[in-house]
Every structure is written in structure tokens, then in C-alpha cells.
Amino acid sequence: MTLILLWIIIIGILLLIYLAFPLWSSEQIPRETDIMTSASQQLDLQREQSYSALLDLDEDYEVGKISDKDYQMLRQELLHETAEILKRIENSSDESVEDEIQKYKERHQLEEQ
Fold it and tell me: Does residue 60 belong to any structural domain of this protein?
């Protein structure tokens, strides 16, 4: 009985050390850096989602799922949202939103092949 209790205590101590090790680790990321990286990743994700939405809209229009009027309205809204996202990212290049979308479409097509 005492042998079982001893093993339970040993396993418990090892488990606590294993679970507490990340708290004692010296390689902790500063909070500000983590927040900035997270914001940058969030903006990149929003940009990719916006490009994907534009690509889906173009495909739906090409196969006739939506009318010309709806397509023009939705495309303008998505382009405006994409431009806002790109402004927030402060893209250093002078490429237009259309050029960025075209590059995304080309990457997307290469991934599908």
C-alpha cells in the first residue's frame, strides 16, 4: 500500500514540474512584441480573407450566380474594405489593390494545380 502511495506522490511531483516548467522558462516573449505580432497577423489574415472574398465574388459572377448590378455593388464594397486593410498595413509598395488581388489569384491558382 505504501509503495503505491509513494509512486502516486512521485508521479504527482513529476507532473507538477512538467506543467510548471513553462512558467519558469527564461525564453518568455515580451508582452508588447506579442501584441504587435498578433495585430500584424490579424491584419494579414484580414487581407487574405478580403482577397479570397473578392476571388469568390468574381467566380460567382463569371458562372452567373449573381447579377451585374449586385456584382458591381459588392465588388466596390469589398474593394473599399480591402483598401482600408491595406492602408492599415501600410504597404510600402505602390501597387494598387487590383494588382494585389491579381497576385493573390495567381497564387491561388498555382496552389490548386
Answer: yes
Q: What is the pLDDT of residues 3-56, one digit of tens each?
A: 888 888 899 898 888 888 777 766 655 554 455 556 677 888 888 999 999 999
pLDDT of residue 30: 54
Q: Is the per-residue pLDDT at 93 higher than 50?
A: no
DSSP state of 63: T
User: Of the candidates 108, 82, 107, which has an alpha carbon nearest to the alpha carbon of residue 95?
Assistant: 82
Is the backbone of residue 52 left (phi > 0), alpha (psi -120 to 50) or beta? Answer: alpha
The model's pTM is 0.53
Q: Give the domain range for residue 69.
A: 32-112
Compute how many other C-beta atoms are within 10 angstroms of the C-beta atom of residue 41: 10
**What's the Cα-to-Cα distance from 83 to each of 76, 94, 100, rounded to whole Å?**
10, 12, 10
Q: Tally the domains of the chain.
A: 1
Task: Report the first-to-last Cα separation within the chain, whole angstroms.
Answer: 64
* Distance of alpha carbon 80 from alpha carbon 105, whole angstroms: 18
